[in-house]
Amino acid sequence: MTRELATDAPFGQVLDLTELTTTDTETGRYAGVIDPTWTIGPKVHGGTMVAATAAAATRRLAEAGESFAAMAPIAASSDFLGAPDPGEVEYAVHIRKKGRQICLADAELIQHGRTLVRTAFTFGHLDATATRWSGPDTDMAAEPTAEAMRYTPDSPMGKIVHVSQGAHVLLDPTWGEFLRGETGQPRLRLWIRPFDGDETVPRVRAAFAMMAADMSPPVPMNLGHFGWSPTVQMTTYLRRVPAPGWLRVIATAREVGERMFDEDQLVLDSTGAVVAQSRQLALIPAS
Question: Domain named Acyl-CoA thioesterase-like N-terminal HotDog: which ranges (predicted)?
Fold first, then answer.
């Protein structure tokens, strides 16, 4: 499978897969391409890897029967063994359990014969009606404010976060003390929205929400810690298909330690509903 890589590829292309032949009847294998658009620095963005692997697992489960086609990856527990480069990747998926309410699958993202991401997926049915109860309202505006800092290709953040070439991304400066050379609490907020073509397809919006749950910069930046913060482990939840429009990403930490920090990211859609969540354990930059 060969495709010319683009620097402005729509997110939907990340989900396009080609089935590969295999003698292992228990494992589905698929090929895909992740373009440089969906990278942070030179490496593929972690949330994009989770969403792309989820697409492979979803396809494999759907092949097990029509009753499973309506299920979605409601939880993903990912271990990052290495950092893939943009380009061609493979996915190997093994279904562990098929049930009426819950299904389980193990999946691997492979590049050059090496497993780089290992994810355990839980499949179920997404919420589609109003919530029974929701936590305290956020004071974050539903749409970017006039003061919001847009990631552009020539901005300091845009030069690193290439995702901004495939989606609208704006950082809330009220929580970004590091932008002013100051320190503050380990918390950040941003707005993100797919480009028009991606926003029209519900399955792409859902996958985009999973990706967005890993979109915030590392929150220790507000404490003066800059540089690469490798994710050790991340768990992602998908709650519902987001309504069209802006997504709000709210990132916070419980503790920033000597070597590691935790980071929770909450994703709200334009209606204020929770659409995705994540919690990760990451390493503090060495510098």
Answer: 35-124
CA separation, residue 142 to residues 168, 255, 268 (Å): 14, 28, 9
Range of the domain at 169: 11-126+143-283
| Contact status, residue 234 vs residue 210, Cβ threshold 8 Å | no
Number of domains in the chain: 1
81 Cβ contact list (under 8 Å, min separation 6): 114, 115, 116, 117, 118
131 within domain boundaries:
no
* Cβ contact 217:156 at 8 Å: no
Q: What does 224-257 look like in DSSP terms, one character per residue? A: T--S---EEEEEEEE-SPPPSS-EEEEEE-S-B-
pLDDT digits (tens, 9 = 90+) for 79-99: 999 999 999 999 999 999 999
Residue 287 has pLDDT above 70, yes or no: no
DSSP string, 161-205: BGGGGTEEEEE-TTS-GGGGT----SEEEEEEEE-HHHHT-HHHH
- pTM of the model as a whole: 0.95
